[in-house]
């Protein structure tokens, strides 16, 4: 089976939300012309050693038992069924938002609204470059009752003082927003998270739609790791 025929070739396993989907991804990814059945141990070892997930044979077995149509199991192991491939494809459709080139208005007022509307609790944003257009996105897409923490490396403040003035005006209107600058090391990541989910962005929020990009919902393992990274950086970052 060539990579062109594999659904997994076009899917980031870290974008899959649950263990069942990750197990299906492994089955699709490692199946070839010589072997198409794999044990729960093989699947769990692949997720641990190749993908960096913390799981077990028992957890894989339980996950694949939840829907008997996705795999066929015999003494030689699990074989991915066509229904399982379709379910895998459907999983990633719900986790990826495609941003078209040349459509910045749609990106900021439709795609981002779709993401932010599902957020619960504190909204955390990491973006190397922020400006007044970043604040405009907050104003249009996030409920003022939700606290917002923005971690950045560079505040584009043109004309001088404009960003801080707009930030203070947002606060005056009731928005609970704080911006900090992190200079301890190079800040490359662009992402958004709340109390339960993590979205990776291909571009800075203020430039979404200027060129082709994606917003990708990643799994709980990545969420836990990056939430810890954000918190540690936030502690040493300087408020503007």
Please give the structural blueprint:
Blueprint: H1 19-30, H2 40-49, H3 57-65, E1 71-74, E2 77-80, H4 82-93, E3 96-99, H5 104-116, E4 123-126, E5 129-130, H6 132-141, E6 148-152, E7 154-155, H7 162-172, E8 177-181, E9 191-193, E10 198-201, E11 213-218, H8 220-236, E12 238-239
Parallel strand pairs: 4-6, 5-7, 6-8
Antiparallel strand pairs: 1-2, 3-11, 4-9, 8-12, 9-10, 10-11
Counted up, domains total 2
Q: Write down the CATH class of the largest domain.
A: Alpha Beta
At CATH level 3, the topology of the largest domain is Endonuclease, Chain A
Task: Please tally the helical runs, counting DSSP H or I stretches of 4 or more residues.
Answer: 8
Q: What is the tally of beta strands?
A: 12
CATH architectural arrangement of the largest domain:
2-Layer Sandwich
Kindly provide the radius of gyration, computed on alpha-carbon positions and rounded to a whole number of angstroms. Answer: 21 Å
CATH superfamily of the largest domain: Endonuclease Chain A
Shape: elongated
Spatial strand sequence of the major β-sheet? 3-11-10-9-4-6-8-12
Q: Considering DSSP H and I runs of 4 or more, what fraction of the residues is helical?
A: 25-40%
Largest sheet: 8 strands, mixed
């Amino acid at each position: 089976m060539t990579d062109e025929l594999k659904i997994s070739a076009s899917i980031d396993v870290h974008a899959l939300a649950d263990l069942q989907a990750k197990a299906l991804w492994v089955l699709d990814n490692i199946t070839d012309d010589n072997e198409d059945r794999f044990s729960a141990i093989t699947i769990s070892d692949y997720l641990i050693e190749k993908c960096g997930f913390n799981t077990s044979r028992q957890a894989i077995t339980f996950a694949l038992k939840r829907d008997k149509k996705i795999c066929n199991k015999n003494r030689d192991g699990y074989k991915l069924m066509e229904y399982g491939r379709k379910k895998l494809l459907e999983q990633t459709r719900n986790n990826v938002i495609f941003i078209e080139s040349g459509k910045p208005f749609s990106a900021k007022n439709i795609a981002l609204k779709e993401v932010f509307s599902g957020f619960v609790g504190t909204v955390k944003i990491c973006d190397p470059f922020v400006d007044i257009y970043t604040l405009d996105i907050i104003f249009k897409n996030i409920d003022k009752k939700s606290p917002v923490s923005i971690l950045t490396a560079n505040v584009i403040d043109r004309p001088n003082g404009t960003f801080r003035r707009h930030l203070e005006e947002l606060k005056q209107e009731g928005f609970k927003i704080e911006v900090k600058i992190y200079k301890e090391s190079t800040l490359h990541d662009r992402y958004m998270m709340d109390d339960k989910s993590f979205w990776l962005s291909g571009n800075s929020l203020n430039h979404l739609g200027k060129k082709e990009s994606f917003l990708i919902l990643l799994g709980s393992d990545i969420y836990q790791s990056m939430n810890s990274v954000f918190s540690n950086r936030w502690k040493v970052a300087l408020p503007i």
